[in-house]
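A reminder from the course coordinator: this example appears on the midterm review sheet, so study it carefully.

Given structure:
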């Protein structure tokens, strides 16, 4: 199993490793912990170091986005792979990376 990790560098939290059904729970807890520690305001996560992902990555991003909102923060995602972006489009959940597109019922 490739462990997913989060490392802070110059105010950006770099995510690396694999996002799979085996790693997603632990990674979710790590990302929410970062948001809790940062408090209100924007928190940027760079997913450019992700080496492999499955559809659980979409659920991860949605969960982190919604958790951030509940905590008064904004999760910003960069470096997402084409595969993750394609899945979000397919599922109709582009609002995960474009907060102004979030359905009012989600807020």
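Designed residues:
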């Amino acid at each position: 199993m490739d462990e997913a990790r989060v490392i802070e560098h110059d105010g950006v939290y770099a995510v690396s490793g694999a996002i799979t059904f085996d790693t997603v729970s632990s990674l979710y807890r790590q990302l929410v912990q970062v948001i809790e520690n940062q408090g209100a305001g924007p928190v940027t996560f760079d997913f450019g170091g992700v080496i492999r992902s499955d559809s659980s990555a979409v659920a991860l991003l949605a969960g982190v986005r919604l958790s951030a909102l509940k905590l008064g923060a904004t999760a910003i995602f960069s470096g997402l792979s084409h595969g993750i972006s394609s899945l979000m489009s397919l599922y109709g959940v582009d609002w995960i990376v474009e907060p102004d597109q979030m359905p009012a019922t989600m807020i």
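Residues 5-106 form a domain with the Transcription Regulator spoIIAA fold (CATH 3.30.750.24). The chain has a mean pLDDT of 89.
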